[in-house]
Design a protein that fits this description.
- The structure holds 2 protein chains of 2 kinds.
- By secondary structure, chain A is α+β, with helices and mostly antiparallel strands.
- Chain A has 2 domains: about 5-225, 2-Layer Sandwich (Alpha-Beta Plaits), CATH 3.30.70.20; about 230-275.
- Chain A is built from 7 helices and 10 strands.
- Chain A has helices spanning about 20-30, 90-95, 120-125, 145-150, 155-160, 170-185, 230-270, and strands at about 5-10, 60-65, 75-80, 100, 105-110, 130, 135-140, 165-170, 195, 205-210.
- In chain A, the strands form 4 sheets. Chain A has a 4-stranded mixed beta sheet.
- In chain A, a hairpin with a 4-residue loop joins strand 6 and strand 7.
- The longest helix of chain A has about 45 residues, at about 230-270.
- Chain B is of the alpha/beta class.
- Chain B is about 20% helix and about 10% strand.
- In chain B, the strands form 11 sheets. Chain B has a 6-stranded mixed beta sheet. In chain B, strands 9-10-11 form a 3-stranded parallel beta sheet, with no helix packed on it. In chain B, strands 12-13-16 form a 3-stranded antiparallel beta sheet.
- In chain B, helix 2 crosses helix 9 (about 215-225) and helix 8 (about 200-210) packs across helix 9.
- The longest helix of chain B is centred in the middle third of the chain and has 16 residues, at about 475-490.
- Classes of the chains: A alpha+beta, B alpha/beta.
- Chains A and B meet through helix 1 and strand 3 of A and helix 1 and helix 23 of B.
């Protein structure tokens, strides 16, 4: 039974980079800090978390954009998370069926089924998934499936002070997002747009309002499913096999024709003259 | 604000989503600037030049001079029209000398740190000196300087005694001030103000602050467009304004600007001080400050004419304005201290009350400690080994104590100074030589006790215990109460006069029944404490409902008059109210928490209505006069006498609010006006003036006087302050906070989830400065000041920028100060670089601007 699709709309224009989402996620899911907290300075702006991993399921990115005379300058902030794709590459390749689509249209890895085979890690075009070193299994954001089942909202959305991370039914979020993009365009910020509508992997149930190219935020502009190559490569394989088969048949026939021709030649020479040596008759 | 108050910043975000413009003035580009529409980059310490420039621009602008709103507000609600003493000299005089009239030598205790002082006689209103209650901030008015505070000329006055004290108050009535409502008299406040800021042009602002003139003008125009009858602008500040040797004057400059723009007392206007700790507002309301007693009354002082209760009331009571009720506040407070032992015959125990004798604030206390004059210290939730200025000196001072009690969540740097500080590691101090006995008491957390938070908008919210603290951890209330009990027991048999105070101290907060759901059976009943703060009728114990019910004869008991009304009946703790207004209604959410005083959400809200009592506009109506009902009404609790009509004239013989007319919104001021010019109350001048920080790479472009002429400084070999433009220290060093950490790191560097977010101390510098010094991102860097040196990793970023100031390029170097030598993540102590130097009004240290040098380490 399918309840309504639920997810996140993240308005990055009101993100203040406070990282409450990172901490709330770790606290709710009891995920460990990097090296017990004794992390190192990355030197990449205020981002010491660096990337999503098996034990970090929310990651705030900081992008500094300043020209030399400082007349133009902005600091973009964005809380990265699993995109809960409508067409999910990880789900496609999972051999054990650990990865499922829930009744909320979110994508969840069932930790007790996962065997740590790592296929999903390479299948994800966003680099979201990794192995949790403690469990040895692949882990990522669950969109707080447990909280949702209890009628609560995800921990990150609850913690976000400026409501950059908004949670709700996808249909409602899409309307809200469109309205916000229009508001920004009217105020002169014409580079605002939605990343994650249906044109990307059927739609991302964690979609974003961005103000620059996706690559600036570390996102792919044209992510594809692993199965994108299935039809072309299967077709090519089949065509290749057919070509090989044909070549094989042609080659077999040629060999047989050559052998038959050689046999006939030998018979003609035998009946024509006495043989001197007999080399040709030696086989 | 986004950096340090991210949750409060949600309101700024919501305002932005509804079209508000956000302006951020800061030397750096921070997480707040990322949300701002305009960034005004200003050199650290030059805010008065910037604000003065805005004042000058506004009063000379066409909009301000043609839209009738501004003049109507300013003439009626501020002291713009008041005429000042003929002998007053401004900083513009004597060829821009940069000092006011009355500068004299300081002859008090050198431990108080003043380098000079002002005699403010010539700053007074002509014909009459008007007093100012030395209340919310002014430590200097606690007797360390011989300045006027409270009632001027108090010493020479003969007054009757009391109770009742009304005749005493009446005897203090001064003659009225002279005014010129046309604002043209050459010695009226408005003309003095205009002249004082006349050289603060956009070009001068650029020269001093480094802010491009176009950006400055954009800010000024935006402020003008968004002020007036239909729109208001709010100014929000934090330690970027307080932590300077002229911090209160910076805030004063904002007050002048907001008064001129008519933004005070109106919704969406005002000045919001973002205080830095969860309930630091509460800790000044019911104070842990040495110079104030509850409700911002001045602490009795051995240095003032405070020998008897009558002397105290004569000196500290303002006869006009609401502070005329000081006798009622003080007597009710003394009853809360000494209970039945406080009687009219013994002046309600006034003689037993401790008297202060100088500046007992943090900096001079540590200097005294270094000189061996302090025996013991309680550091409860405070970590001077990291948070104190010139932290090396402070750690060495701790070694001079006989005993030190640290009550905190973890073993802080202060608790561990004797074996793990840099001084011990370097061999400069040896643990075996340190005689200090250190006690570490573990603390309970917020969720483990009942209590209150008072936040920055005076809003008091109750919090409830959710779980017991583990082991020996206890709340501060438990600790203080049981310590007091044991001390009282030790003095129980003493007959010495000096011990009568503690003997008679009311100290019963035992729970009537031990709590059923806690294993800690002796936790004090905080509701009993709240009742004492709220107040009650002495005889019956019936709760008071309002401070209007306070009496000066001992029949009421009330610890803190400003909180009176928070607990009007048993079972009705208004701080625990959690009822917001329904969505879509316009209102002040009066049932969400409790805002002192009297649950007023916007102070001085009489100013939200015109002099005739009607709202300035429909869009900005807040309270207004209801002619039919004969009272003030509206969305908020009126901050005015409830039934006083707008056209009520002032009573020339009246005391208290009777001395004010129906158009005097500033009820706590003696003259009922917002002060553009402060004849008293500020010890470093009646008007804000641009001075350079105590250390600067720049000579003051505006005046011959370089720095605040009366700042506080402690001249010691280990506290060197360098001369301006010293080539060895050419860069401006500024210190600040990050979202991920809290203060000295005790609440954050011990938590893995926070430690990993910002694990290492870093120093921020521009790519221009980095390339000049051959420093790459993540290189180890040595940062040096005249006090010491530390190491940090470089974070090279264009968010720091070189500035053009007074004809040369000035670089800022920035350091967060959260790191110390204890915890999961450690680092050098940034405060090893700062100095013991501070503001003379309130003894706050200068942490936002001094000089340094950097090099690759």
């Amino acid at each position: 039974m399918m309840a309504e699709p639920m997810g996140f709309f993240t308005d990055t224009t009101v993100c203040i980079g406070c990282k409450a989402c990172e901490v709330a996620c770790k606290e709710w899911n009891q995920l460990p800090a990097e090296s017990g907290g004794a992390n190192t300075l990355s030197g990449e702006s205020y981002d010491n978390t660096r990337r999503l991993s098996g034990t970090t399921w929310r990651h705030v990115r900081f992008i500094e954009q300043f020209n030399e005379d400082r007349s133009q300058g902005r600091w973009l902030m964005m809380s990265d998370v699993c995109k809960h794709c409508v067409q999910a590459g990880c789900l496609e390749v999972c051999p054990t069926g650990a990865i499922i689509r829930t009744e909320f249209d979110t994508v969840v890895i069932q930790a007790d089924v996962c065997n740590g085979c790592r296929a999903c890690i390479s299948a994800c075009p966003f680099g979201v998934i990794d192995i949790n070193p403690i469990t040895g299994t692949a882990m990522k954001c669950t969109l707080c499936y447990d909280r949702m089942q209890a009628g609560m909202i995800p921990a990150c959305a609850q913690a976000c002070p400026t409501q950059s991370i908004q949670f709700g039914p996808i249909s409602e979020l899409r309307q809200r997002a469109e309205k916000r993009v229009r508001q920004l365009h009217e105020a002169g910020q014409t580079d605002a747009y939605i990343y994650g509508d249906e044109s990307i992997l059927g739609g991302l149930n964690s979609f974003y309002l961005l103000v620059d190219e996706p690559e600036v935020y570390g996102l792919p502009s044209n992510p594809q499913l692993p199965s994108r190559n299935l039809v072309p490569s299967a077709t090519l394989s089949a065509a290749g096999a057919a070509a090989m088969g044909l070549l094989g048949l042609v080659s077999l026939r040629k060999r047989r024709m050559d052998r038959l021709a050689a046999e006939r030649r030998a018979e003609r020479e035998e009946s024509a003259e006495p043989v001197e040596g007999g080399e040709e008759g030696d086989a | 604000m986004a950096e340090c108050h991210p949750v409060a910043f949600r309101w700024v975000t919501q305002a932005k989503l509804r079209g508000a413009k956000v302006i951020h003035a800061d030397p750096r580009f921070t997480r707040t600037t990322a949300m701002a529409d305009i960034h005004a980059p200003i050199r650290a310490g030059t805010d008065i030049a910037f604000l003065g420039g805005l004042i000058n621009y506004v009063i000379n602008s066409e909009r301000w001079n043609t839209d009738p709103f501004f003049k109507e507000y300013v003439v009626n609600y501020t002291n713009a029209a008041t005429i000042i003493n003929d002998d007053f000299k401004d900083t513009e005089d004597d060829d821009a000398a940069g000092v006011f009239s009355g500068l004299i030598e300081y002859t008090g205790d050198p431990l108080n740190g003043f380098v000079a002082q002002y005699d403010n006689t010539t700053w007074q209103y002509r014909r009459t000196a008007v007093g100012d209650q030395g209340r919310s901030g002014s430590t200097a008015q606690s007797g360390e300087q011989e300045v006027e505070s409270g009632q001027p000329d108090a010493e020479s006055q003969e007054v009757p005694s009391g109770p009742p004290f009304d005749p005493l108050v009446r005897a203090l009535l001064p003659p009225p001030a002279e005014t010129d409502p046309t604002l043209e008299h050459p010695r009226c406040v408005f003309q003095i103000l205009k002249r004082h800021f006349s050289r603060y042009t956009p070009e001068m602002v650029a020269e001093v602050t480094g802010c491009p003139p176009e950006t400055f003008i954009q800010v000024a125009e935006t402020l003008l467009e968004n002020s007036g009858a239909d729109k208001t602008t709010a100014i929000v500040y934090a330690l970027g304004w307080t932590q300077h040797t002229y911090g209160p004057q910076m805030i004063g400059a904002a007050a002048i600007l907001q008064l001129l723009l008519g933004n005070i007392g109106r919704p969406g206007g005002g000045i919001l001080a973002l205080r830095g700790h969860a309930t630091i507002q509460g800790s000044t309301d019911i104070p842990t400050l040495y110079h104030s007693i509850h409700g911002y009354m001045p602490a009795p002082s051995a240095l003032k004419q405070h020998d008897t209760l009558t002397d105290y009331l004569k000196t500290e009571t303002l006869p006009t304005g609401y502070w005329a009720n000081t006798p009622k506040f003080m007597v009710s407070y003394l009853k809360s201290m000494y209970g039945d032992a406080a009687t009219p015959e013994n002046d309600f125990g006034y003689d037993w009350h401790p008297k202060i004798s100088g500046d007992h604030s943090h900096m001079p206390m540590m200097v005294a400690m270094m000189e061996g004059k302090v025996k013991g210290m309680f550091a409860m939730g405070q970590n001077p080994a990291v948070g104190g200025q010139n932290a090396r000196l402070q750690r060495k001072a701790l070694a001079k104590l006989e005993w030190l009690v640290v009550k905190d969540n973890f073993e802080t740097e202060t608790a561990a100074f004797w074996y793990n500080s840099p001084e011990v590691k370097s061999g400069e101090l040896r643990p075996e030589d340190i005689q200090t006995e250190v006690f570490l008491f573990p603390s309970a957390q917020v969720g483990e006790m009942d209590g209150s938070f008072t936040n920055t908008q005076r809003l008091v919210k109750w919090h409830h215990r959710a779980a017991d603290p583990p082991g020996d951890c206890r709340s501060d209330v438990w600790f203080t109460y049981h310590l007091g009990k044991r001390l009282k027991a030790l003095y129980a048999d003493s007959d010495l006069p000096r011990d009568q105070g503690i003997k008679n101290l009311v100290w019963d907060y035992e729970p009537d029944e031990p709590p059923a759901d806690s294993r800690i059976k002796d936790e004090p009943d905080v509701e009993k404490i709240l009742k004492e703060i709220n107040g009650y009728y002495t005889e019956t114990g019936e709760h008071l409902k309002s401070f209007a019910d306070l009496k000066d004869d001992g029949s009421t008991t009330c610890a803190s008059w400003i909180y009176c009304g928070i607990f009007p009946e048993p079972g009705q703790n208004r701080a625990a109210n959690r009822e917001p207004d329904p969505p879509g209604t316009v209102g002040a959410h009066l049932n969400w928490g409790y805002a002192w005083p009297a649950n007023r959400r916007i102070l001085y809200n009489r100013a939200s209505a015109r002099p005739d009592g009607q709202p300035w506009s429909e869009a900005k109506k807040w309270i207004w006069w209801d002619e039919e009902q004969g009272q003030w009404t509206g969305y908020d609790v009126p901050d005015f006498a409830a039934t006083k009509a707008p056209d009520t004239p002032a009573d020339p013989n009246g005391i208290g609010l009777d001395a004010h007319s129906g158009t005097d919104p500033f009820i706590m001021k003696a003259d009922g006006k917002g002060w553009l010019f402060a004849p008293t109350g500020m010890v470093d001048g009646p008007l804000p003036t641009h001075y350079e920080p105590a250390e600067s790479p720049v000579r003051n472009p505006l005046y011959r006087q370089q720095t605040n002429p009366v700042l506080k400084r402690w001249d010691r070999e280990d506290n060197r302050i360098i001369e301006p433009e010293d080539p060895e220290f050419p860069y401006v060093l500024t210190t600040y906070r990050l979202t991920e950490h809290h203060l000295s790191g005790v609440m954050s560097r011990w938590l893995p989830w926070l430690a990993e977010l910002q694990p290492e101390l870093f120093v921020e510098l521009s790519p221009e400065l980095a390339s000049e010094k051959g420093i790459n991102n993540l290189d180890w860097v040595r940062i040096r000041t005249p006090r010491g040196e530390i190491r940090a990793k470089a974070l090279v970023t264009r968010r720091m920028r070189p500035m053009q100031v007074a004809g040369k390029t000035i670089h800022h170097v920035g350091l967060p100060w959260h790191w110390g030598y204890q915890g999961i993540v450690t680092g050098d102590v940034t405060n090893d670089l700062s100095a013991l130097v501070g503001d003379p009004n309130v003894s706050i240290h200068e942490a936002k601007a001094f000089v340094c040098n950097v090099e690759k380490a």
